Amino acid sequence: MKKISRFLIATAVAAVLFCNRASAAGPESSHVESTLVRTAVVTPAETAARGFTGLVAARVQSNLGFRVSGKIVKRFVDAGEKVTRGQAMMQLDAKDLKLQLVAKQKTVAAARALAVQARADEVRYRKLAKDGWATQQKYDQIVAQLDSANAKLSAAEAEAAVSQNEVNYSVLHADVDGTVVNTLAEPGQVVTAGQTVIELAERGPREALLHLPETLRPDIGSMAMAQLYGSQTTIQVKLRQLSDAADPISRTYEARYVLSGDTSTAPLGATIRVWLKNTSSQPVSKIPLGAIYDDGERTGVWIIDKKSMKISFKNIILQGLGAEDAFVTGLANGTMIVALGAHTLHEGETIRFNQEKVAAND
Question: What residue stretch is flagged as signal peptide (predicted)?
Answer without folding.
Answer: 1-24
